[in-house]
Please model this.
Amino acid sequence: MSNGETKEVILIGAGIMSATLGSLLKELVPDWKIKVFEKLDKTGEESSNEWNNAGTGHAALCELNYTKENPDGSVDIKKAININEQFQVSKQFWAYLVDSQLIRRPQEFIMPLPHMSLVQGQKNVEFLKRRHEAMSSNPLFASMEYATDHETLKKWIPLIMENRATTDAIAATKIDSGTDVNFGALTRLLFQQLESQGVEMHYQHSVDDLKRTRDGGWEVKVRDHAGGNLENHKADFVFIGCGGGSLHLLQKSGIPEGKGIGGFPVSGIFMSCTNQEIVEQHHAKVYGKAPVGAPPMSVPHLDTRYINNKKSLLFGPFAGFSPKFLKNGSMFDLITSVKPSNVLTMLSAGVKEMGLTKYLIEQVLQSKEKRMEQLREFVPNAKSEDWELVIAGQRVQVIKDTEEGGKGTLQFGTEVVTAGDGSIAALLGASPGASTAVPVMLDIIERCFPENIKEWEPKIKEMVPSYGLSLSENPELLQKVNQTTDRALGLDQNKAIHN
Ligand SMILES: Cc1cc2nc3c(=O)[nH]c(=O)nc-3n(C[C@H](O)[C@H](O)[C@H](O)COP(=O)(O)OP(=O)(O)OC[C@H]3O[C@@H](n4cnc5c(N)ncnc54)[C@H](O)[C@@H]3O)c2cc1C
Model:
């Protein structure tokens, strides 16, 4: 408890973000009262579910869109450093939860897996070499390897190298400290723990509206689907962690910080391999380059996944268009998100992003065979009968007016919106997503509870030893953090088993 005051907290939505914020608050202020309202009948069923996202522990070890090629040919790795540092924060908190026995079997949600970038064609091969030079000189990426010779590549990615001419220009980088994260399992584990610590979980309860109260708190209007009742609940602090559903509730809150923001939904489809013999021939997450005109979230990748104690193989995501903001959402989500305060922003984006909308609609209309052709760029021998389509989650990209992009600019990152008085926060956007849940929720805590943060700092540092420090600038701390997190999360032992 802080300043002698016990607060009432409402978390809306039971995905990874609410689970993370709830877990952080429970450690910082165990006697604050937390209630969770979730419209579905389970936790982690929307984007956080293991089949609805790619399960990449995004640490910028393989995603080419996190580095930019400068006009002089040099490679800017600032964004990659930032994303890696954020993932290190998440890993440290998860390691703390394991060491404190709040989570028992880390292998249920995180497994070591090499992360690789793969490019074809001479120009791309040269770019990857320059990128490798820039990245491997930073302590965060020091162990990144680079190869162009087919013999080495056959060892790294046999399935991808089958049936390729030895004259093909192809290159890859590999780093063994990558991970596959089952965010659905992690969400469930965190909520189980929170429930055992007295957090009230209300399933099949949709939040329909929320209003400020005179004392500076919030009244939250909740619909109980089972009983059909409308309930009112009060809170000092509200977190809108509804994934794609956050924008509508942010608009209903009426806070000025939420005005002028719109959302654009992009759906995802994966192909899953049904032939276990083929699944066993691949052991990595291999990220390629996004096709020209494609949004960054549709970078194709071939991923080993660990789901329900079984190794799987997924390819995608293929982007698509649906007006729904959640997989279990409504066809009216997009149209009802247009309000007088964001209509100009939305219309400007509509004009600017015609090309993207056309691209997404074309993607939806693609036949399975057309998708197989894209898969064959990765797995030349892929047979249609070994692969099936899996519908993944919806991402709602933020649209807002920015200085650089002007009116109605589509954003591909995560956006945190908080009220000036810190009584409410909402999370919008989807990338890098679940991997950065811990630093993003710590950011919300700093912004919404500035009066408590000094008092909480020692505990935050116990949970995240690198809190407030840059690991890339502190190689000794980086080494220590890597050792302790790898041991706690079982990444060192499991790496030895699988390599
Ligand atoms: C195709 C795809 C691939 C991705 N790949 C990755 C990846 O590889 N790595 C990564 O780190 N991230 C990835 N992401 C992003 C990641 O999945 C999301 O950032 C993350 O899961 C969002 O978590 P959340 O808790 O905000 O939302 P969600 O998990 O969507 O949870 C929101 C919850 O709120 C509930 N809800 C909604 N409205 C209401 C309401 N009014 N009342 C009550 N409850 C409500 C929903 O039912 C849901 O349970 C991917 C996403 C997609 C779609």
Q: What stands out?
A: The first helix runs from residue 16 to 28. The radius of gyration is 22 Å. The chain has a mean pLDDT of 93.
